[in-house]
Structure formats: structure tokens, C-alpha cells
Automatic annotation (TrEMBL):
Subunit structure: Interacts transiently with the RNA polymerase catalytic core formed by RpoA, RpoB, RpoC and RpoZ (2 alpha, 1 beta, 1 beta' and 1 omega subunit) to form the RNA polymerase holoenzyme that can initiate transcription.
Domain SnoaL-like: 220-292
Domain of life the protein comes from: Bacteria
NCBIfam families listed in its UniProt record: PRK08241.1, sigma70-ECF, SigX5
Domain RNA polymerase sigma-70 region: 20-88
InterPro entries: NTF2-like_dom_sf (IPR032710), RNA_pol_sigma-70-like (IPR039425), RNA_pol_sigma-70_dom (IPR014284), RNA_pol_sigma-G_actinobac (IPR014305), RNA_pol_sigma70_r2 (IPR007627), RNA_pol_sigma70_r4_t2 (IPR013249), RNA_pol_sigma_r2 (IPR013325), RNA_pol_sigma_r3/r4-like (IPR013324)
Alphabetic keyword roster: Sigma factor, Transcription, Transcription regulation
Family: Belongs to the sigma-70 factor family. ECF subfamily.
Pfam families in UniProt: Sigma70_r2, Sigma70_r4_2, SnoaL_2
Domain RNA polymerase sigma factor 70 region 4 type residue range list: 145-197
UniProt name for this protein: RNA polymerase subunit sigma-70
């Protein structure tokens, strides 16, 4: 950041302000997303953050970096948003039955119905700067859907403390200053947050590197099994503790037995899906799902599926609604 650019922004130059905050936009967006779990809510909060920064620029005294100052604003905006809403895990009621009448058991970890994916195209805009010295999680893990889900189960303050300390790598004193807390309060909140997150994480072999030959081979096997509509072939690709879910619906399944019952139950509907269009979200492989209109031959998008791997098996399969697929830039219709 140059003093000249900051002075121009303070004098009311909007172009200078845009240039000042541009290097941090994606990082701020991702911070809001991690706090809120919703891509759309994160976009709204990012805009509020930038507006607040623009209006409060005269009060920025330069005692911290612009990046830290923006992190402070974004985190507090997210905390305000979380305190003004009531987001609690949703339990499956008697109305949540499958097409075959089977009533699924909900996960003991709880549902996060507002969960949405984050497009990998936006992750390419992250700055090259390494996380701070206190960071505990690698960037790839800290954007996975499993990590995002576990985060949503934390109280807002614990969520903020863990992100600032273990993901962005701020020191305890810096985090306390950012949140207006004491260091002891930060240390206590971090300890509780780590305990909750560690309990929610499922140990297992690491996923293949994004874009690697191993990941592509797994993706090819998944697509072949999915489009063949062979339940046994699909289940054979999964870990024993596979997690299948469909936010914002209240369906959630843990383990291969429940996954098999679910895919068998929805077979009549799933067999209509005849094309998968690849994309990526949360540093994970994803596909938009399409059915073909028998009269026009046009393919219509019916959803998005994001897959997580553990070693050479699928350990997580998350299905999202049509609107999420289009949010990631996938076409609503395609001509054969």
C-alpha cells in the first residue's frame, strides 16, 4: 500500500479506494463465507464490509495494515449478521421421507441447511501471501465442505477466534485486538473451538492433490458409476463412513448401509440424470446434473453434486439445488 494511494482514497477518490482494497477482496469474501457458510450471504456481507471501509476510511490511522483493518471490519460484520439471525441445526421431521417411504436418520453432527459451495474460480484470486505464523490448517482443508460444516456448529465468537488464529494465523494478542476481547478470552474460546472441531473431524487418508492423475481417475470412476445408475458400483467407491447430504433439505445419511438404502430409494429419480458437467467448488470435484427432455432433446440442470475424497474412496457427497449450480456459472439448459 502506498501512502499516495491511501491519501487519494481518503480524499474521496473511489478508483483509488477500489485499487486499495482489490488485493484483499477474495480473501475477505472467503473469510465471510467461512463465518457464514453461505456464498450468497458472504457476498452481501462483503459489500457491507467494503461500504463500511469506504465510509470509515478517514478513521483508519495506519496503526495496522489495511488487510488487518479490513479483516476487523469483515469479522465484526459477520458477527453482527450471525447475532441477528437464528441459525440452528435442523432435525428431520416426520414429513422428511424418501420417495420409497423410508424415514432417514439425521446425522448426530447436525444439519447446516444454509450451506452453499464456494466456486474454485474465485479461489484463484487469493493473494500469494502465506498465512500468519499461528496458522494450524492448510488452505485446502480450511475451505472444504466438511470443515465449513464443522465451523457452523461453533458459537459465533469461537468461530471468529478459530478463523483468525488457526486459518489466517493471527497471534493471540492481535486476535484480541481485532475482536475487542482479552487475550485470556481468546485463548479460552480457541481451546473450546478446537475441541469441538477435532471431535467433528473424521480421520482418514488425505485426498488426492487437486488436478492430479489420481484425482482424475477417481472422478472418472465416479462419473461412470453415477451415470450407469448402478447402486452397487457407486457404493463400492465409498468409505465405510461416507457422508451423503442435501442442504437445504433435511436428508442426511452416514455410512454405506444408509447410503445404499438412499440411492436405492431415489433410483427412479436419479436414473433420469444422463449427463454430468464438471466444475470445481471448495477445492473439490463437482458436477452439474442434467436430465434430457424426451420431446425437445434439451438437457435441463437439476442440481449440483460436490464430492470429497479420502485416499482412493469417496467420503463425502453433497447435493445442492439447481440455483446453486447456476450460481457457480453452470448453464441451466444445454442442447445435445
Amino acid at each position: 500500500m502506498s501512502a499516495e494511494l491511501l491519501n487519494r482514497a481518503r480524499s474521496g477518490d473511489r478508483d483509488a479506494f477500489a485499487e486499495l482494497v482489490q488485493p484483499y477482496r477474495t480473501e475477505l469474501h472467503l473469510l465471510c463465507y467461512r463465518m457464514l457458510g453461505s456464498f450468497q450471504d458472504a457476498e452481501d456481507t462483503l459489500q457491507e464490509t467494503l461500504l463500511s471501509a469506504w465510509m470509515g476510511l478517514e478513521g483508519f490511522e495506519g496503526r495496522s495494515s489495511v488487510r488487518t483493518w479490513l479483516h476487523r471490519i469483515a469479522t465484526n460484520r459477520c458477527l453482527n449478521a450471525l447475532r441477528s439471525t437464528s441459525r440452528r441445526p435442523v432435525t428431520t421431521g416426520p414429513e422428511a421421507t424418501s420417495v420409497a417411504g423410508w424415514v432417514p436418520e439425521t446425522s448426530l453432527h447436525g444439519e447446516v441447511p444454509w450451506l452453499q459451495p464456494f466456486p474454485d474460480l474465485l479461489l484463484d484470486g487469493l493473494p500469494d501471501t502465506e498465512p500468519g505464523p499461528e496458522a494450524r490448517y492448510e488452505a485446502r482443508e480450511a475451505v472444504s465442505l466438511a470443515f465449513l460444516t464443522a465451523l457452523q456448529l461453533l458459537p459465533p465468537n469461537q468461530r471468529a477466534v478459530l478463523l483468525l488464529r488457526d486459518v489466517l494465523g493471527y497471534r493471540a494478542a492481535e486476535t484480541a485486538d481485532l475482536l475487542g476481547l482479552t487475550e485470556s478470552a481468546v485463548t479460552s474460546a480457541l481451546k473450546r473451538a478446537r475441541t469441538t472441531l477435532d471431535a467433528a473431524r473424521t480421520p482418514g487418508p488425505p485426498a488426492p492433490a487437486p488436478g492430479s492423475t489420481q484425482e482424475q481417475e477417481l472422478a472418472d470412476r465416479f462419473v461412470a458409476a453415477f451415470l450407469s445408475h448402478d447402486v452397487n458400483a457407486l457404493i463400492a467407491l465409498m468409505t465405510d463412513d461416507v457422508w451423503v447430504r442435501m442442504p437445504p433439505l433435511t436428508f442426511e445419511y452416514r455410512g454405506r448401509d444408509d447410503a445404499r438404502r438412499f440411492f436405492s430409494a431415489v433410483h427412479p429419480h436419479r436414473s433420469l440424470i444422463t449427463r454430468l458437467l464438471p466444475t470445481r467448488a471448495n477445492n473439490q470435484p463437482a458436477w452439474a446434473e442434467y436430465t434430457r427432455d424426451p420431446l425437445t432433446g434439451v438437457f435441463h440442470c437439476v442440481g449440483l453434486v460436490v464430492v470429497g475424497y479420502a485416499g482412493d474412496r469417496i467420503n463425502e457427497l453433497t447435493h445442492f439445488e439447481i440455483g446453486i449450480a447456476t450460481l457457480l456459472g453452470m448453464p441451466r439448459t444445454m442442447v445435445a
